[in-house]
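From: lab user (bench 3)
To: helpdesk
Subject: output format question, protein + iron/sulfur cluster

Hello, I'm new to running complex predictions and I'm not sure whether the block I got back is the full result or only part of it. Here's what I submitted:
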Amino acid sequence: MKTENVAERCEVTRNACVVCSPLGATIAFAGVERGMTLLHGSQGCATYIRRYVISHFREPLDVASSSFTEETAVFGGAGNLRLALENVVREYAPALVGVATTCLAETIGEDAAYVRRSLGMSGGAAGAASAAAAAGAGTGAGGTGAGGGGAPLIVAVSTPSYRGSHRDGFRAALRALTEATNPRGAEADAGADAAPCATQGARKCAAPATVALFPAMVSPADLRSLKADIGAFGLEAILATDYSDTLDGGPWKAHRLLPEGGTTVASLSRMRGASAAIEFGADFSADRSAAGFLEQAHGVPRHAMPLPVGIRATDAFMSVLSDLSGKCLPPALEAERARLLDSYVDAHKHVFGKRALLYGDPDHVEALSGFLREIGMIPLLPEGEGRDFAQAEAAARASEKRGEPVDLVIGNGKGYKTSLKMDVPLVRTGFPIHDRFGGQRVRVLGFGGTQELFDRIVNALIERKQEDSDVGYTYY
Ligand code: SF4
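Helpdesk reply: Thanks, we reran it on our side. This is the complete output you should expect:
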């Protein structure tokens, strides 16, 4: 009898170096003030995501679920979904409920469109109130409730993990949030201090000039540093998601159901009046891009660029800020840039020609790859789609066969076993980092973040050289 290898027949991902798509959506929703995620699917998905997020950020995070059972999987989950929404709104009084679908829900056809239909949403913020009312959850008007009695904004997003990773779920959530809070045809709401914008003619934009920022899935520390960089030019930043406090805050005197911080729903609605939208990442296809939507629907000029890791990429970011503000690079940032450049020269002998294997979130891989080339290192990229460690390790083996062994592995903490297998150091960046402390404070962006990353790479190489030396080599 002929046997069939299932792995050959199906497209499978084993030992993934990325994580689950609704996890990315959960992080994005956690960056909205009083934002709450409701996963449409099984409880296990919510448990897994909570555990993964908490272990990285070391902060509490509640994730609700429509709790599929065998019966729901066969006959549909609309009833569960409505009940879950009612419970969430009653217990948490959220300003936003982000409903993200899981693999099982999507497999039986219950995608974002189904969620919207089931909740009686017409889509966008206008649908939020009717959805909440349909769920018996509140009577406030509009979709911009701030919790504590008003109807929450409800956003639905399709996030099957077999169609993408945490990066895709994160981006899909930002797009859904942007569409819901800035519906086509809505007037620009630039706030009380609105003034005609010099660069946009009659179009009004907020004063000071406002930048709508769509970060990739970066650390809270990097979000803080992006806000500081934009602020240094005298610009106001509206982050499409800002989990810099909600997922990296201080201690509480009393338990809270939802942490303080995050971008308000009202601020999100102001993005359509921004002077520009800056979007970081490696994939800028119009149908997936939140900044693309703002540009198409509201004429907000869009600047799409890789994450600012390294001098070249950070210069490109700074140049946009400089054009928008009409100001030169502020002296503090210029000094930071000079120190970084100086360190490139100082450590050139340690990094030049060294090979580093990259893996994980494509937004990070692309940015790190550009940075490594800038400092004279050789990036090795996973073969194929780069979703699992087999593809990453294949790239390393191919390089070894050419007589060019890998010196370093750079990526999230899931690469630990790969680094052990190859017997090279691992420099941890991105998400998740479970096997070290402080993953939420790892910086890689801007001149300051690049400096920290550069120092870590150089020291990892020096440390390995030191370990391999049998003569007590201590002076470099
Ligand atoms: S990969 Fe799919 S099934 Fe697994 S936790 Fe994520 S959504 Fe749930």
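A quick orientation on your result: Residues 21-181 form a domain with the Rossmann fold fold (CATH 3.40.50.1980). Let us know if anything else is unclear.
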